[in-house]
Amino acid sequence: MRTELQFSPVLGYIGSFAPKSFTFEQPTTIELDGHIPGLNEPDPSPQNTVFPSRSLAYEQASIAFDGTTFVLTPEDELAENICVNGYLLQDQAHVLQDGDVLQFGSYMRKEHRFKTDCAAKVSFRLSPGASPTGTNWAGIRQLVSDLQREQAQAQQGHQSAGRKTPFKIASSQNLTQSPGQIQIPPKASKDGFSDGSFAAVLRELRHTSAFLCSKFDAMLGPVPASESASTPSVVNILPLY
């Protein structure tokens, strides 16, 4: 889980600055620094942790992120330049809470008051990190969709294969090139066969049988020598009279 640490100026205090936002994904430590115009650089900007505070330029502080919490700690044990929610931090570490108000300045001992250079309000925002490496949810959804479509096509093809192929009524006397599909000659009329004679039908059947036998021979290959003497490779067709 990524965490954004944000600093925004507080109304009613001097030392305005542009809001700052920093993203943390793993334990790290950042340093809070101050700026004195004309004496040190860089100037405060949304991209750095520099604030318009003279006292913070002399005595810095740090914020450590351990993966779950942010801890604010002065770098100088004797520093008295930070107040948290109106209380002087001194040399104590403070676990930042959402809504904390940090004042950077100087504690006036004789006057028992804190002179503020600038004030910043702390806020957190949790944001989900990137998806785990190798996980492509859009790709996974597409894969599931493809699998479902392939299963539907396979099931449909299985159902089609399970149905018997109907015989096709021939419109001519050309035979199909597949032995699994046989064309049936036209039915005879009341006065006789459509081709005019019974012999023509027998000739057609003989031609078909020879054609099928040649196809079977091509599929089965040469006949072994042990079988050639007893098993003919071509079916003999009786002559027609």
From TrEMBL:
User: What positions does the domain FHA occupy?
Assistant: 46-105
Say which domain of life the source belongs to. Answer: Eukaryota
Q: Which organism is it from?
A: Tilletia controversa
Q: In its UniProt entry, what is this protein called? A: FHA domain-containing protein
State the InterPro entries in the record.
Answer: FHA_dom
